[in-house]
Amino acid sequence: MENFRAPPPPSLPLRAPILPGTTSDRSATPGPAVIRFLRGRYAGRSAEWHRPTMRFRFVHAADLHLDTPFTGIAEVDGPVAEALRDASLRAWSDLVELCVEEGASFLLLAGDTYDGPRRGLRAQMAFLQGLRRLDRAGIAVLAVSGNHDPEGSGWSAISGWPPTTTFFPADGVRSVPVLRDGRALATVYGISYARPDESRNLAALFPRLRGPGPDGVRIGLLHCNVGSDPDHGDYAPCTTADLRAAAVDYWALGHVHRHRLVLAGDPVWAAYPGVLQGRSPAPVEAGPKGALVVDCDTDVPGGLREAPRLVPLDRIRFAAATADVTAAADLAAAAAAVAQTLEDLRADPAHAGRGVVVRVILAGSPEAAWPSELPRLLRSGELLQQVRAAAAHLRPFVWCEGLRPALAPAVAREAVAGRGDFAAALVAATDALASDAGALDALVRTLKGELPRTIRDALADGGDRSAGPGDIPAAPGAPDDRLGLLAAAEQECLRLLADEGEGAP
Predict the structure, then answer these.
(1) Which of 300, 327, 289 is nearest to 216 (CA)?
(2) What CATH number should be reported for the domain whose range is 54-312?
(3) pLDDT digits (tens, 9 = 90+) for 457-498
(4) Domain residue spans of the chain
């Protein structure tokens, strides 16, 4: 992120919106944000927020990756391509409206607002328009940068920001109080990245002791990797012990693209909202994506009344689905089974109103002869074209991104394991890794370390920018993504050995 300005000093704190029914210090001169808010609307706010109290609400989002290029998706055109191009910007617009409708006192953005230094004009203008909309509503915005948009990187078309927007700098942890009637609702601490490959433990720089005066709910705003999650770049690495050691009530985190509640109170809270809009068919990008709404009360230990709630805001949902083709007598029946899977996905209320990009796993143990033709048809794309044509009428769209076979029955695998050839050695190595979580994790780290940085960063962020086995989702029933990837990689190797006459099934 560029054009950072230092947070306002304590003498000029951000003023939170005054909710209807709360007391007001009439002797104090209200700031411009408060005046604008008093002229605004109060639609969508429940009665419990109209009582004179120090309760308040904020929204926590991260990893907007505005105008991001969708990766791992080929041969997309027409309405699907247009929807993909606009998805991240429309999700940002929906995030802005969520803040207004929920009566949020402020919005926190925990890094990676942009996808990289080559940020487009329309992304920058959309971001500015959203900030202006929030400014008119009297909603403050506080943001840090991350590894994709470190301070000073990239070209900026914007020379000034709304007065209610604060970007934290990278030269140290700063604090910004948010006040109502002269009392602190919250104090937000934050620090941005100075470089893309930030390796320092930034969490350790946050204050360890509370100040002498009341400062409301203390919030840490940080883009980091808690616990060195191997699915993401190990930037600003820290541990939950580091989070607990700081004088912070709620950690508003960014970087990990899955929603995750890292600490659940008692007394420290920490959460990743996940990416605002999924970006590829990779497992970390699949499922509902959005922002967290956080309800606070300054009289409650830890500041939070309950766990943050995720509000899905993604305009396009990435998903994985399984089509059971055991009963398919021929390829036409198999294609029909996949088409029915897409129909069922469209009917799922969890995806209502959203386009869906899905990767379909062909599962089962068909006794017919057609699976022998499957590798050729998958490589040529013929079967995929038939599936897409069958789903073309669905609205909103369901676009089949790809088909992945998972048809090898367990008995065939056991037969390979006892043959004593190269394929058997491969099966034995897979079994050894599957039974040793530490060895599997070490292998993942080693492989990522040997990849070129551009590919490594793409895999680390959950992007699907390489053509390796990392783009294969977890197999049905796998306890985690790594085991699913391992099983899928083994089947792909056995298939390739069979195609080359190496004796695999």
Answers:
(1) 300
(2) 3.60.21.10
(3) 444 444 333 223 333 333 333 334 567 677 767 777 776 776
(4) 54-312, 315-407, 413-505
Question: What's the pTM?
Answer: 0.73
Percent of the chain with pLDDT over 90: 46
Measured CA to CA in angstroms, residue 241 lies from 192, 203, 207, 237, 429 at distances of: 21, 10, 14, 12, 36
Fill in the amino acid letter for 337: A
For residue 240, what pLDDT is reported?
96
Report which of 347, 4, 374, 31 is spatially closest to residue 182, judged by C-alpha positions: 31
- How do residues 166-181 score in pLDDT, each as one tens digit? 999 999 999 999 988 8
Mean pLDDT of the chain: 80
- Phi, psi for residue 111 in degrees, rounded to 5: 95, 160
Q: CA dihedral defined by 346, 350, 354, 359, rounded to 10 degrees?
A: -60
Three-state SS for 449-463 is: HHCCHHHHHHHHCCC
- Is the model's pLDDT at 28 over the cut of 60? no
Closest-CA residue to 74 (of 471, 375, 439): 471
> Residues 129-160: pLDDT tens digits?
999 999 999 999 999 999 998 988 877 888 88
Please list the residues that pair with 272 across neighbouring strands. 260
Cβ atoms < 10 Å from Cβ of 78 = 9
**Integer Cα distance of 445 and 27 in angstroms:** 60
| CA–CA distance, 427 with 52 (Å, rounded to integer) | 66
* Surface-to-core class of residue 502, CB atoms within 10 Å of its CB (0-12 exposed, 13-18 middle, 19+ buried): middle
pLDDT at 373 over 60: yes
CA distance 77 to 69: 14
Amino acid present at 435: S
SS3 assignment for 245-300: HCCCCEEEEECCCCCEEEEEECCEEEEECCCCCCCCCCHHHCCCCEEEEEEEECCC
- For 95-117, write each residue's pLDDT tens digit: 999 999 999 999 999 999 998 77
Q: How far apart are CA 403 and CA 358, in angstroms?
A: 9
* Cα(301)–Cα(424) distance, integer angstroms: 58
